[in-house]
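Predict structure. Input: Nodulin-like, putative, 537 residues.
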Amino acid sequence: MALTFQGYVAGSLVRLCVFYSFMNVGTTYFDLVCTQTLLYYFPTKRGYLVALLKSMMGIGSSMTSILYQGFFPDRPSFFYFLMVYAIIFAVLNCIFMRLPKYQTTGYEDRKLTPEEKEERLKLKAPYLNQEPPMIRFYYGIGLIIVVIIFTTVASAVINYVGLKTHEEIRPFSIVVVILWAGFGLIMFPWQLFFGKKQGRQDHEDRDTRQEEPAYDDTKKPEQEITVAKEFDGYLEGAEELAEMESGSNEKPIETEVDFIAPQYQTSFWRNLLSINLWCLFWVFFIVMGTELMIMNNSTYIFQALSGHKQPDSLRYLLSVLNGVGSSAGRLSMSFFEVWIQSRPVEKRWPITVTLFVPTVSVLITVTLLLALPESVLPLPYVLGAVGNGFLGAILVLAPRTIYAKDNAKHYNFLFLATACSSIVINRFLYGEWYAQQAGDTVCLRRACVQPALIVCVCVCTTAFATNILLHFRYRSFCRKVLRERAILRGEITPEASEGNENENHGETFEEVNLDNGEAIAVNDTKSNKSANRGTGI
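Output follows.
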């Protein structure tokens, strides 16, 4: 890009598209490596982690825009700066980013013996039980909120006060550099000054609670997280474990469902044969595609709806509102997930309920764009940006919460939905119609964008119906897992559970067995009967 702007490489539509695709591939790998790897280290703090990582990705565009206006106005050297910045952190990621020991890769799955896999999986328990230093999360999220407020105020001042020269904008850029450097303090050893004594006491309390059962073979399910294994008659296995528990006066059995959400234990390739994954694909395809169409073409849509050209200040304002709204949406989704996880296991909501938020927001956004006057058009744009950020956080949390295996494959599959939607909805539905109506000029007529917006409203209603189907199917699965957890804890009898099973057998059979040869978490493993934690009912 820098060589193109400097004139050393002839610019063309094809070349710029290729350059842009290179950049998207690189940023996608950054996102995949950092986010998916770190989620393995904090399986019970996903909301905080996503709030920190994904929100930073959302406000990055706003911070970069202010840096460009203050330090690199009309200079191709800005691209060299971004290149050096990316190379430095890519090298650091290559050096330090590693999967935790309990997580095996596809290559390791083919090479390790079942005994070695089981030993590796036993190392997962500390990651579920231990509490990370929360001061790092609190500091990072607090700093992100400060950045969101600052970029909003800075954009308003720059655009509406009329700051033009880079000398006038440079003070804002200096503050951005300071705030950007402030994220490095997340690595600071805060425990040396805060909570060291309390952290030591909590560690001793956990040791006191866990040391005794660790040597009690009859209580092995309390300490270990084991791989789900097939057996005939999961209710009989649950009854056997319930008898073991009733024979002692110890605390109830603790399983993965007390820490993380109920998860399907089948592989990605098996899940391709289930309706749930394709429901997720369709929701992301429609909702994300519509939001990207609005976000990427906001200036042209506003001009067509208003009937006249918009000033450059509006374009800068929309860029900042997009970053701020997206970050706010990611924070909202992350905090909502934290709230869900803080509720009692039996009262947690399924993660699928969150899909209704971006679906409804995009429906309202498109409807308001068609109905509101020009003066308030930025309002639905902000709503769409919030929904876009909310869905961006769901893209990380939903597949990791619902599926236990092949997390990167599930994440990339849903990310593929957004890529396909940008081609189908943005390029063909919006782009072709706009080009046909506008010709070689900028279109200033509603007819250039109105048909595409109306079509988006119609297809988004199908996404809402898909949300309902997916939510009820996953909720049924969660209830199944929690019933078996209640059996293990002696809260209900297997006979009572079997009665409920017969009542709901038709509703839940496909959820539990996707294939005759392989059963998933609900009817697997004696030691890990409720091998997953419910996001709730």
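Residues 483 and 497 are 7 Å apart (CA to CA).
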